[in-house]
Amino acid sequence: MKSDTCMSSPEVLGIKLSLLKNRLESLFVDRDREVVASLASLISGEPAIFISPPGTGKTKLIEILSELINARYFYYLLTKFTEPDELIGPVDIAYLRKGKYVRLTKGRLPEAEVVFLDEIFRASSAIRNFLLDIILYKRIYNGSEYIKAPILTIYTASNEVSQENEDAALYDRFTIRDFYGPVGFDSWRQLLEKGLVLEIHRNNFFDPVLSADEIRTIQEKVKQRAFENLKNETLINKYLEVLAELKSSGVELSDRRKVKALIVASAISFIYHEGEISLESLGDAIRFTAPSTEDDLKKIEDALVKAGLTSYEYRVRQLKTLETELNNIMARVKAVPADSNIRALNDVLSKSINMVERVGNSERLESYKSSLRDKIDEAKELLSQLKGESAGNA
């Protein structure tokens, strides 16, 4: 029988974390970024907020994630009328008669390991106040004393960012912020297929991959790595450079967020099996932690590019754009094999080959590189075919 130490070794935990990521990505369409955001929150312990329209899979993703780690899950849809008792449990009347103030917390937030609070900005001021303490210290006041809550992380969601001043302090506590929209037209068929599979065969997918205790072990390692990487001069200097670029473009992180971003970068480095925090993981962490509104996203990407720190998402977009360009120009060449179209195809083909070489051997980009390579081979074959036809007609 294997010992608990062996089962919790870094190698085993890394494999299990990859299985968890792959399982989630296989169940959802075009939600790789949201999967990484949810996992980064989980293994860093940093709260996350998903900002997207209704019906874009926020609740389903976190619900399934909690099942895959066999965690006690608490979900609540907040309104302005929601009372704290609905979240943390009512006062036990029997104990109150004895002069003791005790809450009935079974099945409520105080006993949950994964918490998801929907429509967070609709919460009353009373809810906001006690949530701040829970987020900061993961504790709950139970009448006469604070009790430690076993919360691994807290997820929240909203259709939009609140512009109210009273929400600013709460919003700043959500370290990870993910803005996204509905699945695009090109993926609707996949959406229908996977969506129906989830609805019909739901109970066939969710055997636990990791345990809550293993997540706690990873959380400790994530924080330890973040601290150790303070000695990485290349990383820290680049981070300071990006922060300066962000400030000059009007995106300024609070002191708290500047620190938290490194913890998120450490978490992302664990997700991708890096031995230390890479510049790529740092870029991804900034992408999750720096924006206050959706309008900030382009400013952040521009700042990353200026600092020579392109994020994973930026690389993915480059690879997918070139693949689309190759596909479109090949269609034009097949329809009208004019010299101008062939020259354009050669130009895009050259850019695509250079891009595949330039992105290096990043594991996280391999599927996108492979897809672009297939399109490159197809373009080469088309050009070879056209050359043969031209020689035959000479």
Automatic annotation (TrEMBL):
The keyword Cytoplasm does not apply. Keywords: Coiled coil. Pfam families: bpMoxR (PF20030). It comes from the Archaea. The keyword Heme does not apply. InterPro entries: AAA+_ATPase (IPR003593), MoxR (IPR045427), P-loop_NTPase (IPR027417), RavA_ATPases (IPR050513). Residues 44-184 form the AAA+ ATPase domain. Residues 362-389 form a coiled coil. PANTHER family: ATPASE RAVA. This is AAA family ATPase. The lineage of its organism: Archaea, Thermoproteota, Thermoprotei, Fervidicoccales, Fervidicoccaceae.
